[in-house]
What we know:
The protein is mainly alpha-helical. Helix content is 54%, strand content 7%.
Amino acid sequence: MLLIVEGLLVTILLVVAYYKYSFRYWKRRNVPYVTPTIPWGNYPNAIKRKIHYGQQIVNIYHQMKKQGHRYFGIYQFFQPCFVPIDPKYLRLIMSKDFHCFYKRNFYYNAKDDPISAHLVSLNGDKWKKLRSKMTPTFTTGKIKMLFKIYLECGKILGNILEEHCQKGTPVNIKEMFSSFKGGV
């Protein structure tokens, strides 16, 4: 019995030591980070279902941005994750340095939920293939051309919504946004 208790105690101590070592990842690299808690990392409220996971990320993001950081590190359990804030870093990561950042921990289920398999959530070769297909689509010239069209459609959509608000009439949002998409 004593041997089992000692084994359990050693196992717990090893797990705690591993977490403490893992939670020093960003400190060792001089990257600003939010202090994590064992074993949840930076998401204790999301895991305990007090705050939605996405809202927890937004809260941490705003906290770090308010402190003037251009990037920071967080922990998902013991897994370190880099979060850029500055658009310059985002552009570099998504274009030039993508080979270093292609492995992300986002949910996607291409079979049952094909919408979840987008450029931000995919990893590895699937991400590289989709990125190579999408890159020619979003050239600067094409985006500038589309921006004017979206701006015009957005003004029309805003006017229609304003009319419904003034009249107090109900709005069929599905139909309205289908028309907005179709107008482009």
